[in-house]
Specification:
The protein is an alpha+beta fold and about 200 residues long. It contains 5 helices and 12 strands. The structure holds flavin mononucleotide. Flavin mononucleotide binds next to strand 3, strand 5 and helix 3.
Length: about 200
């Protein structure tokens, strides 16, 4: 099967969204934790999360265009702070429910029963149920001119994880902790490490 650009242009929009969000492959799935200036906590699942650099440790995520209310984006612009909380099967239903369009005054923590956790001095809430979570400070927002989406770039401030999950080499055992991956906006996967290869050099 070959799908042409012309056929993509004609494709029914929901089908095209599913295809577009599956095409790059499985990605991490985290709950983004933020808080409004009025003190309302917010959670939303995001999968467009990627490492942008290690020194300093920068993480980017893509948000949809701000043509409608986007609580996550607005809270990040206002407070410059957010958390990313890896999702596991134990609280997947609640995490997925956080993608529902709750009004601005409603906290997804209250709506789903997930537990907010704060570290001293932190503005954005962590999700207590998440085994690996980290806080970020806003560095920049890059407008993607082609379609109005935005790349939100943050520097990692604090990482919370079980001691056993961090190997001496720096590897983080996400699969051992049950952290999930996702494609599209409804499909979740467990992840399984199949091996590690040495740093490749020309043969
Ligand atoms: C599996 C999954 C992945 C998602 N990934 C993203 C994403 O990367 N970027 C985004 O803007 N929205 C993403 N969404 C949609 C948001 O979670 C959804 O629009 C949410 O209502 C946003 O809430 P907010 O208005 O509180 O920010 C995803 C939803 C699901 C279910």
């Amino acid at each position: 099967m070959i799908i042409s650009k012309g056929e993509l242009d004609q494709m029914e929009i929901r089908k095209k969204v599913q295809l577009a969000t599956s095409l790059p492959g499985a990605k991490p799935i985290c709950l983004v934790g933020t808080k409004s200036q009025a003190g309302v906590e917010n959670l939303a699942p995001f999968s467009s999360i990627t490492h942008l650099g290690s020194n300093p440790l920068l993480i980017g995520m893509v948000t949809r265009p701000d043509t409608v209310e986007r609580h996550t984006l607005q809270n990040i612009l206002d407070s410059k702070a957010w958390t990313l909380n890896h999702i596991t099967e134990e609280f997947l239903q609640a995490a997925h429910q956080c993608s529902a369009k709750y009004p601005g005054g409603v906290s997804e923590f209250e709506a789903t029963g997930l537990t907010a956790h704060y570290e001293a001095g932190g503005f954005a809430p962590f999700v207590a149920e998440s085994p690996v979570k980290f806080s970020l400070e806003l560095e920049e927002v890059i407008d993607i001119k082609s379609n109005g989406t935005k790349l939100i770039v943050g520097s990692v401030q604090q990482i919370i994880l079980p001691d056993v999950a961090l190997e001496a080499s720096g590897h983080l055992d996400l699969s051992g902790l049950g952290c999930l991956a996702s494609t599209a906006l409804d499909t979740y996967f467990s992840i399984q490490e199949i091996g590690r290869l040495p740093y490749a050099r020309p043969e």
